[in-house]
Specification:
By secondary structure, the chain is mainly α. Helices cover 61% and strands 4% of the residues. It has one domain: Globins (Globin-like), CATH 1.10.490.
Amino acid sequence: MTELTTTAAGEAEADSADLADRADIDRLLRHFYGRALYDDALYELMEQIRVKGLDSHLPVMCDFWETVLLRARSYRSSVHTVHGEIHAGRPFAAAHFVRWLELWTASVDALFRGPRAERAKLQAGRIAWAMHRRLTGGDSAELDGVLAGQPGTRFTEREP
């Protein structure tokens, strides 16, 4: 079992455990959405999840992150299609992606340490960058600035 300590900000922090399985991903997602669903910057964009209920959304997101982090091949949908539909009604801005990444990174850091935890943060940055570009048709200096500080990223060299 993972030993937890408490940070000065009062959040639980993992001593050393890495993301290992679907249960860890579920725990991470519950922590993240516990903050994101009621975050001022993301509130309107998260309305559909609040209305349907988090328990209906989590299996899909667990499939997605299990595929990204554990190579499980359990996600068979398109994140771009789903987010494109949301964007059509409530357009995403660079600030939304920046805030999403801040909350995601804080959630990962609060619960996990290790290579998969680092990969979760790196992949989230890549996903945010690609999603922003696809939905808005352009780049964002604000988002690029956040991503430039991420170890292991090369966002100054545009990925296809």
